[in-house]
Amino acid sequence: MSTILSPGDVKLRDGRSVDFANLDVAATAPCLRAVADAVAELLPFYGSVHRGAGALSERCTREYEQARETVADFLGARDGDTVVFTRNTTDALNLLARALPGDTTVLTFDAEHHANLLPWRRTVHLDAPRSPQEAVAALERALSRQRCGLVSVTAASNVTGEVWPVAALAEVAHRFGARIAVDAAQLAPHAPVDLAALGADYVAFSGHKVYAPFGAGVLAGRADWLDAAEPYLAGGGASANVGSDLGVNWTTGPARHEAGTPNLLGAVAIATACRALADADHAHERALVKRLRDGLADLPHVEELRLFDADAERVGIVSFAVLGEEPGELATRLGRDHGIGVRAGLFCAHPLTRRLLAEATARLDPGATAPAHAVRASFGLGTTEEHIDRLLSALRRA
Ligand code: PMP
Questions:
Q1: Which pLDDT value is given to residue 318?
Q2: Residues 58, 374: contact at Cβ < 8 Å?
Q3: pTM score, two decimals?
């Protein structure tokens, strides 16, 4: 039995039915069967979390806090770390941005998803580096010139799938007295993300990218900034006591930033996904990355997007420029004629994707105009070799 819930066959324009090849897993991953089972098991016991007595409320409160512990274990949380349940990665990074001590300057590279570019208020942007080593050297140069309180980097790019040297960047950041936050939205589904092992101070990721449903995410890391900050949302759960003059004592701990009734099912879903991912073997995904990249390299009108060298480490994400066909139309046709789901666009990383599209187009044909959008194939636990081969053969015929 598959570990992934699958939509089954889809009907093509010519009337045939095929197994749907979901190659848009980086946007949202399918749900793990274990996650669906854990959520279904809890549904009859639905009750309020931290807000009631009685068997249901007790059970739901216990399950919620156990989910937090499971996620803390999965992330290698240290003493002094906390796990806050958020809505997704975007929410987690916005929460951290609001919790920064007053005058903290944040350093990012121009290679980030908008979720790790737009929330920060005082920022220093470094040019996207051309290799992991260059990223480390550029950070070192920048921090020796300018004081920054936080460095915020992606662990794996949602455009190229390239893995960033987070542990080395963390070592440099700490040497200059800065903390480091890691956008692990795209690494968490493919590899362990361990705060202690990476030396990261904060990590953010989304449930819907780690094979759990929408609506829950995580910000984990050093509790001190979070405990000292104004609550992310004002309301019940975040307030320990409210006087008749509406003077508030805010709680400390994760509840300070989890005002409103908590998302129990989301937390349990994420925790279950973390447990499953801790045991997952990702060798299959690495083999599929190679299969797809080797196949694309043989296509004369297609060129992959990359920032680093061709042999840099990657997760299951490959974006490419296609000449001779409008990318949105190509994506639609792949869906209707071949039962393949990919994404055409700039992937919420507009500066990076536009730049890499221009470079990829120039490698293909120096005189050509770069397409407005790239095409991205991304995959994970449920992907098969046949899905990859189907995409390659459809592109070959394009
Ligand atoms: N960072 C990266 C690297 C991502 O790929 C994404 C999702 N595309 C996000 C952040 C934002 O995730 P979410 O939409 O779940 O908040």
A1: 98
A2: no
A3: 0.97
Q: Domains of the chain by range and CATH?
A: 9-23+281-397 (3.90.1150.10), 33-278 (3.40.640.10)
Could you tell me the two tokens for 63?
């399950």
348 given a catalytic annotation: yes
Q: Which residues surround ligand 1 with Cβ inside 6 Å?
A: 88-90, 113, 115-116, 154, 158, 183, 185-186, 206, 348
122 vs 110: CA distance, rounded Å: 15
Query: What is the band of 1 on the pLDDT scale with cuts at 50, 70, 90?
Result: low
Which residue's alpha carbon is at the smallest distance from atom 6 of ligand 1?
Answer: 185
